[in-house]
Design a protein that fits this description.
10-stranded mixed sheet; 12 strands; alpha+beta; 397 residues
């Protein structure tokens, strides 16, 4: 969207933000929500409190108090975002994507900051990590964020005086990122959001409790897996006689994969031409604790233009599911990751300069509001495209 298009959407924005009026007991905080969202939708180069306040001809202290101390229900704000998606963007095959993000910060006082891996810088960095749940229609024409939460490292949890200085309640404790993600999924479903599929990256696929949590919730999923994940291409029974092997070894040497022909699948059209990957698939059995579970789908895919670029995927979809469908879900994660990058840069998700827990959380949740409005208007301005345009297919012309 251009800045002229954004400015022309004033009436639509006012009508949209009116749906969040019951999150505020007084009119002033409700007006500040409008100020904050307008600032995030603007072309400001940096979208922290001070430039947003000046953009709206406000004293910066006004918006600082709006985030830090004003009384209003930010959790209800998040619930309304999810309820709007459930009401207006129903898709029985919708894809939920779980991801986390690092936000480099200086100093030691911002809630949750510490030296940890930061995806944005691609290295260990002094950063805050947040966990996100995104929503995409199956054809990926509509994509938005549903939830964002702060990851509190164990070191913070073990230093409660430090937590209190940062405004972190005693009820907020260390939780693994995959537990936060499952809680976000439960919240969205409680607000009426339906997911046909769940997708996540390699880090989450290596957490058995995460995959078990999805299965307990009867969620179909497609996750990227590491090449050293162990399993069998046959049912080894309750007490396996032969050890499990890595999926890379199974794909390269086991007969069920080795004897297959590569299937070329058209993933999508890009500015550089059609994206075509070659794929093989077979049933896979895994050991989780003392149980052997399966069959799952094991999918091996590579880019013929860049043969070194290969990926392995795991899915619990029924065995009669079309391979094209599973691969579509697998590759739908990348547009959503792009969506997260847009939130960081275009809407200022990473631009926060607040230090207190409540202010940081409110910034994250207001950004959900801004992004949903942007997603809805972008979809309207772009117009609908037929879903089959986005579904991978065997056609490779």
């Amino acid at each position: 969207m251009t800045i002229d298009q954004v400015l022309s959407l004033g009436p639509a924005l006012a009508k949209y933000l009116a749906e969040f009026a019951d999150c505020f007991g007084r009119c002033e905080p409700s007006q500040h929500l409008t100020h904050y969202v307008r600032g995030q939708l603007s072309n400001l180069p940096r979208k922290s409190v001070e430039p947003i306040a000046l953009f709206n001809n406000l004293a910066p202290r006004t918006l600082q108090e709006f985030l830090n101390t004003d009384v209003w229900d930010h959790r209800k704000l998040r619930d309304h975002v999810q309820q709007i998606v459930a009401r207006d963007h129903v898709d029985p095959q919708a894809i939920g994507v779980i991801d986390d993000s690092g936000h480099p910060k200086k100093g030691k006082k911002t809630a949750g900051v510490q030296w940890q891996y930061c995806g944005r810088s691609g290295k260990t960095d002094n950063c805050v990590v947040t966990v996100h749940l995104s929503y995409s229609s199956f054809d990926t024409t509509f994509r938005t964020m549903l939830d964002s939460d702060l990851f509190l490292p164990e070191g913070w949890d073990q230093d409660r005086p430090r937590c209190r200085q940062a405004g972190i309640p005693d009820t907020v404790v260390y939780r693994p990122k995959y537990d936060i993600a499952l809680e976000q999924l439960d919240r969205a479903r409680a607000n009426g959001v339906h997911f046909g599929w769940i997708s996540a990256d390699i880090w989450y696929s290596q957490k058995p409790k995460f995959l078990a949590g999805l299965e307990e919730r009867q969620c179909r999923y497609v996750v990227e897996i590491p090449r050293n994940l162990q399993g069998w291409l046959y049912d080894p029974g309750v007490n396996p006689r032969h050890p499990a092997r890595s999926v890379q070894e199974l794909c390269q040497h086991a007969k069920p994969m080795k004897n297959q022909e590569w299937i070329p699948l058209h993933i999508k059209d890009t500015d550089k031409g059609p994206m075509v990957w070659k794929v093989k698939a077979a049933p896979l059995w895994l050991q989780r604790g003392d149980q052997v579970l399966g069959p799952y789908w094991l999918i091996w895919a590579y880019d013929p233009l860049h043969p070194e670029d290969e990926k392995f995927f795991l899915s619990n979809a029924p065995q009669n599911t079309r391979l094209e469908t599973i691969l579509h879900v697998a590759f739908a994660r990348w547009p959503i990751e792009r969506c997260l990058e847009d939130k960081k840069s275009e809407l200022g998700l990473s631009h926060f300069e607040v230090r207190k827990y409540q202010a940081l959380l409110r910034h994250l949740l207001i950004t959900l509001v801004s992004h949903l409005f942007l997603a809805r208007q972008t979809q309207r301005l772009r117009g609908e495209k037929p879903g089959h345009h986005y579904l991978p297919s065997p056609r490779c012309s």
